[in-house]
Amino acid sequence: MALTYSVGSLVTARGREWVVLPESEPDLLVLRPLGGSDDDIAAVFPTFEEVKGAEFAPPEPGDLGDQCAAGLLRTALRVGFRSGAGPFRSLAGIAVEPRAYQLVPLLMALRQKTVRMLISDDVGIGKTIEAGLIASELLAQGEATGLAVLCSPALAEQWQQELRTKFAIDAELVLASTVSRLERGLDLGQSLFDKYPNVVVSTDFIKSTRHRDDFVRHCPDLVIVDEAHTCVAADDTSASAQNQLRYELLRRVAEDVTRHLILVTATPHSGKESAFRNLLGLVKPELASVDLETETGRRLLAQHFVARKRADVRQYLTKEDGLGDDSLAERTAFPSDRYFKDETYKLSPAYRALLDDAIAYASERVEAADNRGRREARIAWWSAIALLRSLVSSPRAAAQTLRTRSAAAVAASAEEADRLGAPLTSDAADSDALEGMDVAPGAETEEENAGSRLAELADRAKRLEGPDQDLKLKALIKHLKALLADGHNPIVFCRYIPTAEYLAEELGNTDADSNKKRGPLGAKAVVKAVTGTLSPQQRLERIEQLAAEAGEDAAARRVLIATDCLSEGVNLQHYFDAVVHYDLAWNPTRHDQREGRVDRYGQKRDQVRVITLYGDDNGIDGKVLEVLIKKHRQIKKDLGISVSVPDEMSTGVTDAIVEWLLLRGRQGEQEALFESDAFQQSFADLEKDWNSAAEREKASRSRFAQRSIHPEDVAREVASIREALGDAGEIHTFVRESLAALNAVIRDSGEDFTAEVGGTSAGLRDALAPVVGADTIEKDRPIPFRTDPAIGRGETALVRTDPVVGALAAHVLNAALDTQADGARPARRCGVITTDAVATRTTLLLVRYRFHLTLPSRSGEKQLVAEDARLLAFQGSPKNAVWLPQEQAVALLEAAASENTDAHFGERTMTRILGQLDEVSAHLEAYGEELATELDASHRRVRAASGEIVRGLSVTAQKPADVLGAYVYLPATPADTAAGFPASAGVSA
Q: What pTM does this model have?
């Protein structure tokens, strides 16, 4: 039995009009409301409910709007599209406006039958968005049926939120803390990954042999791996057991050649070429061994690898990129630079005496342990480093370390002592996980008489708390006051939890018992600490709490005290704009990771302030700063990107510093360190390896620069997207003019503005309340609108995908289609405008086309219904229409009325034009066929590299097209009145 209604046709049911979708059956219609979203899809049984064929109602000639009516209706319609007809199926329905450069990985992916990508753009460029764009597109096209994101547990909630809010992908969290709850809901024999098609999975949880096999067997056909560099190791280093488990997991996932795999990392090399090759081998096995010095090898890599610096995309689609003009040019406002200032402090006499005694104690223990065996020597070594690092950090951290047993003390061998002691005292760039690494390490061992001596040192450390004896804290207060006075909101990074909690107590306006006090930074400073004692979700909530407490008060300042649990992955640029390194990391890559939390796309300040505090008389900080931190900065300045210092080299230098400090004593001269054989050898090895890594990175960025997608290809697709969905300028005009017409109070602030909607209709307030908050509507608070799409909390971006813009557009469109709607109606379906912009009578039609698409995919053909809105204009009468080029039709939206048009004359004019529109129906249908042909070509062009992907593709225009609006433009001094439509001045409707 044939379907009564064809796919894409209009029907009336349940008192409204619907579009028939491809999933319909003879006895079951799957319908989407006309102009509605996929969330409103419903199923109707024609046997039980009345369903009739429908035609879109024509405009009413008496419902006349002004010169802005056509443009507002067109934009409101296009903002509402959630099923665009172009080759990018997902772009109309996601809640993010991608930058043009972020489309490059998507274009690369769509040219592959099975997507295999390594996305290695610089920190802050938007790799999460790029990976999300690919994932949402593959899912929308049916090329993928499920998604798994593998990431660290600390970033799992953030990935889940990004997928849900920006890409409308609901993913379950699969973590050690959630898996029991999820498994309780499974059927007998059912896999967790069968029940939940989209998941965000902790890599550290799923890599264990207990869970790995089930994941590999039931793994979704699309996998994203975040921080992929932590899953491989160089061939010439002994990879940790954790690294080996991760690599084995990914190797087995990648073995399925039909599985889409997207690896994401800002540091693909990590200083080692073989680690980079192992990473490439996961993408495509032959890339692990292909000669990348040859053109063939580079061409193969270019299909799968994208790595760009900020300088590459700061200005994009310009004449410098090979385009003919700058009409599509896009500037991305990254901070231009980081302003570094190294500030010193000196120890107080009491603190120096404590440090001297601690060094003497540690030196004795290390020397004694050397004579007792290698295991005892390594335990003593890690205890000594723990003691020194915590003493340099803060009195609170020192006291806790002195009272805590060393993690290495339980080791049965020297190797186990290294494995237990290193993570808590070193700062490796590729730490298996930052979780749990910010606890204060222990220094107690099982040696005789050690306990009482350490307890005495701990008591002395406790008495040094406060700015009188802790001059490092005093220096911090001074520098924070200066930052706050300059309007900055800083993050203070510490190494250990006790230090962060100590600083929060000393700097805040409440004490440890939550009693009010006046902190040294003033009553307007809100201070909070975020450490590893909080779960990842609680950390984000604490930051939101800090922002909420500071509120909108311009004088309020936010100060976040954090450990390195926030140094990777978490985006903090909307709330903070300066970084203070309170504790020096012993690997400079960690400093870069900290600074990267605020120095990224969306940062409002052009320059991020970075202050590094170091002690010039504690024997450690000055040397770490000179040898490691400053060299790292210089390499980044020279190359424009960060180059990781090889971990073993960094450790060699810091070990030499500690050894010198312990064995020579603090009284030794600094020159003696730099002249010592051990230090000279360690520094020479570091310099050689680091320079080599920098040269390789520089060469690879040049050789492997993304060249598989030419800027012209991107420009063509960007122009097509903007033509179909609108550009930023159109949205800005729409929002501003609509709100003004709806009686909102607009206040300018440069290109940005605010709107107060308390005086608007109840319908608009009800539409906006769910997206801006009922409190904002009830108290008539200003709603800030920003031209920069990288917005902060409580702000609205002037892009079509912003929820506030979407709610406004839906209200404007619904009011235009309902002539009985209450309140102001900015957009109307008809208008008669007298203007100097035309020399003869010109009619502008706003036409909605619907297309039936057949898209082949790996899971079979997918049937879709999509929409497009176009402007068509003709001169003269409908019977003898002279059709204008597309650009002239669009230009009519800018035509300004030169005089009023009599309302009665306007209605008569409109009645005659609408009565003759049947004369142009053939042209509208022919234009729809042209659009279908163009869309077919566009889909094929984007997928040109794989013939199998486009085999069977078809696009058909649904007839008839819907005339949503008709607008007549009359010349102010008509050149031709023979057509029977003389112009007349009067009061416009």
A: 0.77
